[in-house]
Specification:
Helices cover 75% and strands 0% of the residues. It is mostly helical.
Length: 128
């Protein structure tokens, strides 16, 4: 599979998760923020998948892209759906979005690093 396809699928998975999780949270009245571990697992999986048969750097990039997508498009979609949260969902404000972006993207990069590292340890990355 090309890396371009992996990028598109990763974006679709992140946004799809945000849509489904937001709708489920709203309909079933459970706190949307409880799903943070699923987001972290997606970043980990993206890191692993990006490195799989490619290289470690591709895992880092795909993990970071997952976080970037989640903190921009994913947050925008979730805000539109208005999931249930005991703390409330903050308004889509540019300064807050920037803060979220600079926190989530490096976090996803780090978790993608772990995923790519696992892939490397298991011998699933492209040999250099």
């Amino acid at each position: 599979m090309t890396f371009k396809k992996k990028i598109l699928i990763t974006i679709a998975v992140v946004v799809g998760f945000d849509v489904i999780a937001s709708l489920a949270s709203r309909l079933l009245q459970f706190d949307y923020t409880n799903l943070v571990l699923v987001s972290l697992a997606i970043y980990l999986g993206a890191g692993y998948w990006g490195a799989h048969r490619r290289g470690f750097l591709f895992g880092l990039l795909l993990g970071a892209l997952a976080g970037l997508t989640d903190s921009t498009i994913g947050w925008w979609v979730s805000t539109l759906i208005r999931p249930y949260s005991r703390m409330g969902i903050p308004a889509l404000d540019l300064s807050l979005q920037f803060i979220i972006l600079i926190i989530v993207t490096p976090l996803a990069f780090g978790i993608g690093f772990v995923g790519a590292g696992i892939c490397k340890i298991l011998g699933q990355t492209k040999s250099a």
